[in-house]
Amino acid sequence: MRNICVFCGSNSGEGTLFAEAAGQTATTIVNRGYGLVYGGGRVGLMGLLADAALAAGGRVIGVIPQALADREVAHRGLSELHVVATMHERKALMAELSDAFVALPGGYGTLDELCEVITWTQLGIHDKPIGLLNVDGFFDQLLGQLDTAVTRGFISPENRRLLCAREDLDQLLAMVCGGLTG
C-alpha cells in the first residue's frame, strides 16, 4: 500500500473550515486506497485527520517524538504509532514511510515539515511529490513569498515547481498522486 503523509496543525484553527478540510482530506485519501502517515497526535487538525481516516476504514500511521507524546497527547487508536526520540527522527521516519506529501494549514511545525521535504527534493534526497492544500487562501502569502524568492534569485523556477498548491482537494491529489498506485 502506498502512503500519503499529511502535515497539519496540532491546533484546529478558527471556525470549522480547516477541520472540515482535514476530515475531507483523510476520507478522500482512504477512499482512493492510500494509507495515511501523520504526526501522531490526537489533538487539533492532526487528531481530526486521524479520526476521519480511521472512521473511513483506513490505515493510519502516526510518528511522534517522546517529548511530544504527552504534550500533543499521542493518539493511541492508530494502526501504528511510532514514538521516536527527536523531531529529526520524526521527519525522517515520516518521509521514509511516505510516497507523497500534502500540507494542510498549521503553524511552525507544519511549515518546518513542509520546507524540509521540499529542500530534500531540491537536494535530490528524494523525488516524492509535494502538495499544499490552500484552504480558504491560508497559504496565499507563503506562496507569494516563494514567488518573490524566485524573482529575487533565491529559488530557481524549476525548484519553485517542486511544490504544487491548489484550493481544490481532488485537483491537488490528482497532481500529487498521479504517478502512484494505491
What does this structure look like?
The protein has eight helices and seven strands. It has 182 residues and is of the alpha/beta class. It has a single domain, classed as Rossmann fold, CATH 3.40.50. A seven-stranded parallel beta sheet has the order 4-3-2-1-5-6-7, with helices on both faces. Strand 3, helix 3 and strand 4 form a beta-alpha-beta unit. Helix 1 runs parallel beside helix 2. The chain is globular and about 45 Å long.
The whole-number mean of residue pLDDT values reads 95
Main pleated sheet: 7 strands, parallel
Looking at CATH, which topology would you report? Rossmann fold
Cα gyration radius (Å)? 15 Å
The CATH architecture name reads 3-Layer(aba) Sandwich
Under CATH at level 1, the class stands as: Alpha Beta
Number of domains: 1
Q: Using DSSP, what is the number of strands?
A: 7
Strand proportion: 15-25%
Helicity, as a percent range: 40-55%
Low-confidence stretches: none
Please state how the strands of the largest beta sheet are arranged side by side.
4-3-2-1-5-6-7
Termini separation comes to: 6 Å
Shape: globular
Number of helices: 8
- Succession of helices and strands: EHEHEHEHEHEHHEH
* Structural class by helix and strand composition: alpha/beta
